[in-house]
Amino acid sequence: MIETFREFSFEAACSLPPHQALQRHVFRVCLHLQGDPDPVYGWPVSGGEVDRHAQPVIRQLHNRHLNEVEGLALPSTENVARWIWDHLTSTLPALASVSITRGKDGLREGMRLFGTGPILQSPALRILNTRISASRRVSTIVSPV
Predict the structure, then answer these.
(1) Per the domain annotation, does 132 fall within a domain?
(2) Backbone angles phi and psi of 114, in degrees to 5
(3) Number of domains into which the chain is organized
């Protein structure tokens, strides 16, 4: 098994309660893909195939007010990652996780969402889905087993 990644970026505005001020961010999205290596190229999924599926999803977020995107009324980085996950898992079955960061270089914040891809089959990880609020769900690595 091998893991590769493909990174995308987009700019968007959003506001999060209780801070109602509209803020513009540069988001970086990293798609982590796992699978058996191709016997010739060594990757689990070609970059072209990832681009073909991911770029239309990223374009739906680029230069948008994220609060107005269907399914992102509360666009925390965790919810944006889940939204991207939900829009890609049916077309990219090798997708193992989605990382997302925002902010300026040297002052970035972010998270990594582990979905139901091959990485969860690893006995070394125990995943806890924690309900944070009625509108926000995050997958968090709790501890090595």
Answers:
(1) no
(2) -95, 120
(3) 1
Closest listed residue to residue 92, CA positions, set 56, 127, 139, 61? 56
Buried residues in 115-132 as b, exposed as e (16+ CB within 10 A): bebbbeeeeeeeeeeeee
Q: Residue 97: which residues within 8 A CB-CB, separation 6 or more?
A: 32, 112, 113, 114, 115, 117, 119
Q: What is the pLDDT of residues 77-132, one digit of tens each?
A: 999 999 999 999 999 999 999 999 998 888 899 999 997 544 333 333 333 222 22
The pLDDT assigned to 116 comes to: 57
Say whether 32 sits in a helix, a strand or coil.
strand
Q: What is the CATH number of the domain that holds 97?
A: 3.30.479.10
106 lies in some domain: yes
Q: What is the mean pLDDT of residues 42-53?
A: 96
